[in-house]
# Entry
Amino acid sequence: MDESALSRRQLLELAGIGLGASALAGCTPDAGPPAPSRPAPASPTQAATPLPTVPLTVGTSSGSFVSAFRPGLASHWSLAAPELPPGGAQQELPLAVFLHGFGGSHAVLLEDLAAHDALQRHLDAGGVPLAIAAVDGGNTWWHPRADGSDTQSMLVQEFVPFLGSQGCDLGRVGLFGLSMGGFGSLLLASQGRLPGVRAVAAMSPAVWDDYEARLDTAFDSPADFAAHDVFALRPRLAALPKRIDCGTADDLAATVRQYRADLPGAVEGGFQPGGHDYNYWRSILPDVLSFLGRNLA
# Structure
């Protein structure tokens, strides 16, 4: 298909192309939120305990839960994290939460992006150890919808607190996502609803500066668009480390350039050869993990 001829509707539908959903090894079904109570996370200014310098191996796990914000649906999740050596106190790991694209699921993280392999290479190269996790968000665009679903609140009130019970440091959180999930990551970071967020990275974020009726998959009305307008929210990202990438052959490149142009503060990333596809996203993932690691250390 000629990507230059794609309409916005087609881009919405293709944002999560090529997905699979096979079970992961070591799956722990029906495990997940609500999370047990836990001590408050360390403040961003508190120094974190250094993690071991011995070679680390990435392990994966997954499960599911029924969210109060997606009633009647099983929300599946995936987690990849370094397996810390036995013995002694187990330090909490910085956490990077991944938001998938339209038509996607939690499986994008470990199947389509093979992020656990990228994380292993990151660790082997001396990168900062961190955990990466994803959860099903449906095609909700990661904000409250007229049908009663609210996947942003699911992240804030259920999934991220649950990850705290799995050994993640909720005082050192990063957000990253692609396409619809890139929009969702920027939105959540801009709205400041999740304490402990220290960085955000968006890969080919599906962002627009005005509302059109054909965006009804993403927003319920012009008022809904205005309430979640990431262009208008850009000043709130002034102090937050941010990285935004997009392929030069992506039909979203023009609006991504426009969004980046007036972001306050430094912006890492940029525009590289590639389209709106997993080949491109896999190619930039190592740099995204490096960015997150540096800012969550």
